[in-house]
Each structure stands twice: as structure tokens, then as C-alpha cells.
Specification:
By secondary structure, the chain is α/β, with parallel strands linked by helices. The protein is built from 17 helices and 13 strands. Helix 15 runs parallel beside helix 17.
């Protein structure tokens, strides 16, 4: 039996009263979560089964007929990878209205659900995200180190099998292109999109000027924006928009895009695992902290808390992450934070907007500076984050 890591998210109480879309990139563990942590369903369909998929294509009323034939009026129905047949949502809608059935529907593409002519059931089902593995799930594992995280990423299959992780990560690109792009005829220029995918991974965590990037790729600005929208809709990347409420300085208008998993970002960029002296090490470290922040905000249902970043339009000052209007966070790989590392935070303090200023780094012990800047070792930061001590509700 495959090893399974219990996930932080708990949907059982929600599913007692309301249907749920559980969305997440491929191999995040949505199916394993449904099988291991959700109560036994009265009906389970996995649409990755081509046999079932083609039966539905031949008979679009199959779900309705099956539910009626079984006389199912209450209980849980699980439909895995529902984006393969988004028109099933019309039947789901009908049974939510007419019965006490609740549905757990997993998917890896919001794009396919929306373009399938449905609107995610108009609020009749909550939308939840499943992220790669997070700190509380793996903090006690003996191989939980930054270097191993950069090597394997945090998709369960890769993290649990580190010796096979590189091969699995290399295969992920093909899986994504086949199931999300080719199968759905999402792009006309597949070679161009493949080239873009690598360049986007190389630009992971950087602010993106669409005009300049499109020129570098030799494609139109509109084509590039469409490709980034595909990555967003297929949950491959997260957009971090610029913070725009400072008064004394003009901010940039360009977003940053982080890939959903640090291992996937490294693999798509054709990058070896970096040593701590390489700039790529810092990029992956920052990406990992972005992953944890995004997951914590989603899992804690902090719907009104936005994750942004700060950068002046001239590029002279930037702060990696801004949480709401309260917290400014810098991520540094250094093992000894100096005044030079604090310059950006100290300048941002002059705006008198934020209540907390944090440096996440690789120092050994936490310390508070006289001006209120809190310096935290990265594991200590994550421990406090997931205890609810960093971001207050």
C-alpha cells in the first residue's frame, strides 16, 4: 500500500452540509485525499478512466440515470477530475436542488470548467484549493531540509520518493502538456508554448513586463497574456500583484508569477539543484515561502487577505511579500542578517502603514531588533505561521 501523508485541510464538516470543488494542480493528491480522508461516498466516479469517460460522451445523461437508478437522495457523491466533462455540472446542479446529496468534485483546471458553459454552480458549492505538502504535514520528516525540498518539490509522489523524484519531475511537463494542453486543444502553437513554459519557469518569481517578454520570445503580447492565463487557469502558477497603497513612492505595476511547486519550477527551468552560493538558491527559497503563505491563507479561509509584493517603479526598493495591509516580509538566504539586508524594510516602515516587519532567513535563532523588525529562522517562521501567530484573522 502506498504511503500516505495526512493533509492539513479537512473538508468533512463542510461536506455534511454543502458541496465542494476541490481544485489543485495534477499530482497534488486530490484523489488520494478523497479516498483516505473523506467519508465513504454513495457513488465514486473517476473521470480519468477512459472507459467511464467515453460512456459519458456517448450518453450525457449517464450520471442522472445512475443516481435515479440507485434511488440516491442523500449521501456523498465524489466525481474526480470533473473538468474532463464539465457539462456534468448541470446534473449536479439539479440534484443539489432536488435532493440532499452533496458532491465533492475535484479538478485541475478552472479554465475547462468555465469554458464548458457552467459557472461553478453559482455558489452552490464552495471552492477549495489543495496545495502541495505544507509545513505541518512534513515538519517531522527526517529529510525535511531546504535542499531536499528544492530537489523533490512538495508534490506527495515526489517528496515521498526522493530517489525517483528527478525522473518524476522531468515527466511532469509531458503529463501537463498532454492532459491540459494537447488533449484540450488549448494552444495552436505547441512548440512555441513549450518554449514559453521553460522561459516562464526561468522567470519564476520575477516581475513580468508582457511587452518585453513577448518581444524576447518572438510572439505577440496578446499571445503571451493568453499563455499566462492558461497557466493561471490550470493552476500551474500563482499571481502576486504589486502593492499599490504607499503614499511617498511610486510602485511598479507589474505582477510576479510563482509556479505552484518549487520542484516543478526548477525542473521546467532545466535547473540543477542549486548550492547555497547560487542566486537560484535564493529564488527557490523565496518560491517556497510564497507556497507556504499562499497555502496558509487558503487553508485558513482568509478570503479578504491579499498576498502582494512591494517594489518601487525605479526598482531601487522591493519587499518580497506584503500580507494585507499589516505585514511586510523579506526573504533572505543569509545566515547572518545585516543592516544592508534590512534597508528595504526600513524604508517601507517610513510609510507608517504596516504593523509587522519580518525577515525570514537561515539564522539559527529568532531575534527582535530595537526598531521592531523581527528576524526569524525559516522553520521558526513556518511554525509561527501555521500556529496563527503571524497572520491574524
Amino acid at each position: 500500500m502506498k504511503e500516505y501523508i495526512k493533509r492539513y485541510i479537512d473538508l468533512n464538516k463542510i461536506l455534511e452540509r454543502k458541496s465542494v470543488f476541490l481544485l489543485g494542480p495534477r499530482l497534488c493528491g486530490k484523489s488520494m485525499y478523497a479516498k483516505n480522508e473523506i467519508r465513504k461516498p454513495v457513488l465514486y466516479w473517476n473521470l480519468l478512466s477512459n472507459t467511464l469517460y467515453y460512456r459519458i460522451i456517448q450518453n450525457p445523461a449517464l450520471l442522472e440515470q445512475t443516481l435515479l437508478a440507485e434511488g440516491l437522495k442523500d449521501g456523498l457523491v465524489v466525481i474526480d477530475e470533473i473538468q474532463r466533462v464539465p457539462t456534468l455540472l448541470y446534473t449536479v446542479h439539479q440534484f443539489i436542488e432536488d435532493t440532499n446529496l452533496v458532491f465533492l468534485m475535484t479538478g485541475s483546471s478552472v479554465r475547462k470548467l468555465k469554458t464548458g458553459g457552467v459557472n461553478l454552480l453559482g455558489g452552490r458549492a464552495l471552492e477549495k484549493r489543495l496545495h502541495p505538502l505544507v509545513y505541518p504535514e512534513i515538519k517531522d520528516r527526517p529529510y525535511y531540509t531546504l535542499e531536499n525540498i528544492f530537489k523533490t518539490g512538495l508534490l506527495p509522489e515526489m517528496f515521498l520518493h526522493p530517489y525517483d523524484a528527478e525522473e518524476a519531475l522531468n515527466a511532469y511537463e509531458g503529463l501537463y502538456l498532454e492532459t491540459e494542453i494537447q488533449l484540450e486543444n488549448e494552444v495552436n502553437d505547441l512548440p512555441g508554448f513549450i518554449n514559453f513554459l521553460e522561459k516562464a519557469a526561468l522567470s519564476n518569481g520575477q516581475q513580468i513586463n508582457f511587452s518585453a517578454f513577448a518581444s524576447d520570445l518572438g510572439v505577440s503580447r496578446n499571445a503571451l497574456k493568453t499563455w499566462y492565463k492558461i497557466l493561471l487557469d490550470t493552476l500551474m502558477i500563482n499571481e502576486i500583484k504589486p502593492y499599490g497603497k504607499t503614499k511617498k513612492r511610486k510602485e511598479t505595476s507589474f505582477s510576479r508569477f510563482y509556479f505552484f511547486d518549487v520542484g516543478i519550477a526548477r525542473s521546467l527551468a532545466k535547473m540543477n539543484v542549486p548550492t547555497e552560493t547560487m542566486c537560484e538558491y535564493g529564488t527557490l527559497f523565496e518560491t517556497y515561502i510564497a507556497m507556504e503563505l499562499r497555502a496558509y491563507i487558503d487553508y485558513s479561509n482568509l478570503y479578504n487577505t491579499e498576498l502582494t509584493y512591494y517594489r518601487t517603479s525605479d526598482g531601487k526598493r522591493e519587499v518580497d511579500f506584503i500580507v494585507g495591509d499589516d505585514i511586510a516580509i523579506e526573504v533572505k538566504t543569509t545566515k547572518s542578517v545585516t543592516d544592508r539586508d534590512l534597508a528595504n524594510l526600513r524604508e517601507l516602515k517610513e510609510e507608517n502603514i504596516f504593523s509587522a516587519f519580518i525577515v525570514v532567513c537561515r539564522e539559527e535563532n529568532p531575534r527582535m531588533l530595537s526598531d521592531g523588525i523581527l528576524i526569524l529562522p525559516w522553520k521558526n517562521f513556518l511554525e509561527r505561521l501555521w500556529k496563527g501567530e503571524i497572520i491574524k484573522e
